[in-house]
Amino acid sequence: MNRRRILFLSTSRGTKVEQQRNRDIFSRTTMIIVIYSLLLLCVVAQGQTFKPGKTTLIRYGGWLPSSKEAYDSFFSQLTDKVSDHRAKALSHIPAVAAFATAMNASSGSDPKMIDFFDQIFLQAAPQNEIKDFDSLLRSLDILLVQPPGFIVPRDPDGNPIGEPIGVPVYILFDLLSNTAAAYDLFRMPAFNVAMKELLDSWGTYLRTPDSTKTLTTLTGGWFSDYGLAYLQAEQRGDFNSTYISPNPEEMDRGFTSWDHFFTREFQPDARPVYSSSDPAIDAGIIVSACESAVLRLDHNVQLHDQFWLKGQKYSLYDMLDHNETATEAFIGGTVYQAFLSPADYHRWRSPVSGTIVNAVVVPGTYYAVLPDGGAEEGDPDFKPGSPYGALIRSQSWLTQSATRAIIYIQADNPKIGLVGFIAVGMVEVSTCSLAVGPGQRIEKGAELGSFHFGGSTHTLLFGPNTDITFNDDIVDPVTGALQVNTHIKVRSALAQAS
Asked: Domain named L-tryptophan decarboxylase PsiD-like: which ranges (predicted)?
């Protein structure tokens, strides 16, 4: 009996009815695979090479508005507020004033920083709505004292469209970041120190009672019909049944701040740890560390490698912050990457049972991306050449450049060995909070830490001696194609080591 089929065709715990159903499915699937294999052998015999079909690389859901109407509405409202802010000659909030000072050469800062900003506004795509540094600062004055929310414009036929503005500061920087000047500026240490202080101030606000004003059933609220539809999409489950709400009957569900809502916990039975009744099989099961969507999978990775997205270098050495000992453990191994949307659960769970070898947070960049020529052919949301979303297209590169938490787990099962978990903070979601430390015992599915304030991405690393087979939800068992964009629940079966 093929263990892969037994393990992954059902997320049940093994009732007799379900076992019989799995045996029936197994028989049918085996026949399909045999027929497919015979056809494949015929193709190979004729001297042709089989290649799995190309899959879509990324999506932007929740990070950027998917409709032009929502995007235009966001900037229309923001522009009106900026104009009013300027007309009244209002002062900058303290955090924005400090950021402006840090960018100003007259304060002793590197004069190249403000020069780079001038170049950014010249180089940005014509669609950019932020035309100068003053407008950027005043936009930040507005966005950093309000929580993320929903926007409800109307489409050309007059129908309302509900879209989340989950990472508003990223929307502000999106087109600015996709420039050569931004690539230089946004990687400068001094810039990122100033940006961290700016975003920390927003993080402080998002822990205040005032930040609950978008936790409402009213239009623009996360518990409105539009908001709940978004939060419950992709089979995440009914909100009140899936998540712990302090007071489910209240308009704000009893959450005391935006951050309280964002780091919400699951109900005890909402995401059980996948297990098998067979101890030998159960010891080799690796579960999903994050509620996330499949992005990339690569085997036989090298110290310095080039794969993932076209033109992006991917380096284990840089990902692991130049830790030579750790890097050596994963050369020739496997890297799995998946990303989280603002609607997802943002706590990390251990993929295996074992011992924490080390856990560190590595400072990095916030809005640096690899500038590109725009969306490629086959992009799921944007037309070819569209300048929007370069950061999302740079996710593999961000694993070695952005702020990230790195956790090493020595699995109890020697067939799994050392596992590396990297939680990558993207844009304003760069607060990575560790819940574990070196020497700590951890059970499969237990909490490792959490993100704050938006969406993010993560990777799992396995050594070269780990014989790992991924779930059918990750890799199509017939074609071998990666099931990109498939939403994987945290603590569900991800892979099997044998």
From this structure: 95-229
